[in-house]
Specification:
Order of helices and strands of chain A: EEEHEEHEHHHEHEHEE
Shape of chain A: globular
CATH architecture of chain A: 3-Layer(aba) Sandwich
Largest interface: A-B, 33 and 33 residues
Number of domains of chain A: 1
CATH topology of chain A: Rossmann fold
CATH class of chain A: Alpha Beta
Bound molecules: adenosine-5'-triphosphate, magnesium ion
Number of helices of chain A: 7
Oligomer: homodimer
Low-confidence stretches of chain A: none
Largest sheet of chain A: 6 strands, mixed
Structural class of chain A: alpha/beta
Chain lengths: ~220, ~220
């Protein structure tokens, strides 16, 4: 499903280099709910961006559903990101000038889904995260946890086979966060793959499998 | 120290009104470490923005150190915000085009502090949050938890008597988050006031006192 082999990522900063990932290998199967844990700055978001085809590794290889990502053009990668992957960003990355509903319909624009169905699917995704009464708000008119849930709904609306959620419950209270985890578990039960980056040990315990990053390497 | 009486806040949205706060009263003394908890959307950030003089209540009154805030001009409020209050925003609100060090020196610009001392105090604040090796980075070149710690350092650098921290450990692992809480406890021991909004029951348990918001009202 997801096969990462010896991924490294370096950032050159003038004379110094930040080694964000130092050789990470990971295999994730369909139906898995995997938690990636680790200290602040250990490379979790960097790893998620590589798996999500949002960035390219310095060295190493990645395959999704048996297909290597390295050889693909930017257009092909954009199709994969839109059709196969749903990404919940750590900082949400919502568009502040359009409404909550419009934010969630955006990924459906590329897929040839008609406007009526787009609206229905977006409303349904927002209902699943408890935001039916905020459809016309703009992101700046929402609480932090409400913005986080819009980001989650947006990642779900294309019904992708891989969901990459970077700290999806960080801004949520226990009860609301638990509802999101139950949603992810239901998605895995359908045979999809969900990877959750989290600091919360309770979230880690909820997931079927956990790995830990430290200084750009997976701990055993 | 902080005296809030029957604070309400309404947002008019076309025909409907969101009642974010419905009459909140709160007294906080010097030296207190107070946790404000509650579900997503319950009004925590709204309450913090009112206490921090970043916004005005629809009705109700607020006094800081015995001085009512209602009568003050925008200039006087700006001085209070800069000298008396350090605010850690839930979304950090860092300036992305300047470096980490420059972000943290910014609040010192208004206080007549010379450039050499500004740099020293900013470095010292960043050292306290474990970011001495990221001074020249820009916020976009940091992890989520590193950005959060820059926001915390920036709130501390003016040595304010009131610190308002909106989910200051939300993006941090257990160990890094604990170091931040220890820092807040040390600040309270100096006679300052720290209010922390949190979803994390462990953070709530760490604080000397807890209140809970639900639907814009404090629960007993
Ligand atoms: N500018 C605004 N216009 C309209 N409604 C708003 C605005 N800002 C906040 N709200 C609403 O006010 C309510 C309280 O928001 P607030 O940000 O205080 O919640 P919170 O307790 O901090 O939530 P969280 O834990 O998710 O950060 C929310 O329901 C939100 O949708
Ligand atoms: N564009 C960049 N340029 C330079 N360094 C970077 C850049 N992006 C990230 N880094 C560095 O790479 C390291 C890993 O960052 P990453 O965002 O993956 O951490 P993380 O594990 O997600 O942390 P957190 O839990 O705080 O979100 C950090 O030390 C960060 O400072
Ligand atoms: Mg991260
Ligand atoms: Mg909030």
């Amino acid at each position: 499903m997801i096969s990462a082999v010896q991924l490294t990522k370096e950032y050159r900063m003038g004379e110094s280099t930040v080694h964000a990932l130092r050789g990470v290998s990971l295999q994730v199967a369909a139906g898995e709910l995997l938690a990636i844990m680790g200290p602040s700055g250990s490379g979790k978001s960097t790893l998620m961006h590589l798996i999500g085809c949002l960035d390219t590794p310095t060295t190493g290889s990645l395959s999704l559903d048996g297909e290597p990502v390295a050889g693909l053009s930017e257009e092909q990668l954009a199709v994969i990101r839109n059709r196969k992957i749903g990404f919940v960003f750590q900082q949400f990355n919502l568009l502040s000038r359009i409404t909550v509903l419009e934010n969630v319909t955006t990924p459906l624009m590329y897929g040839g889904v008609g406007w009526r169905e787009r609206g229905q699917r977006a409303e349904e995704a927002l209902d699943r995260v408890g935001l039916s009464d905020r459809l016309r708000h703009r992101p700046t008119e929402l609480s932090g946890g409400q913005r986080q849930r819009v980001a989650i709904a947006r990642a779900l609306v294309t019904r992708p086979s891989i969901i990459l959620a970077d700290e999806p419950t960080g801004a949520l209270d226990q009860e609301t966060g638990r509802a999101i985890l139950d949603l992810f578990a239901a998605i895995c039960a359908e045979g999809k793959t969900v990877i959750v980056v989290t600091h919360d040990p309770q979230v880690g315990a909820f997931c079927g499998r956990r790995v830990a990053l430290r200084d750009g390497l997976l701990e055993e």
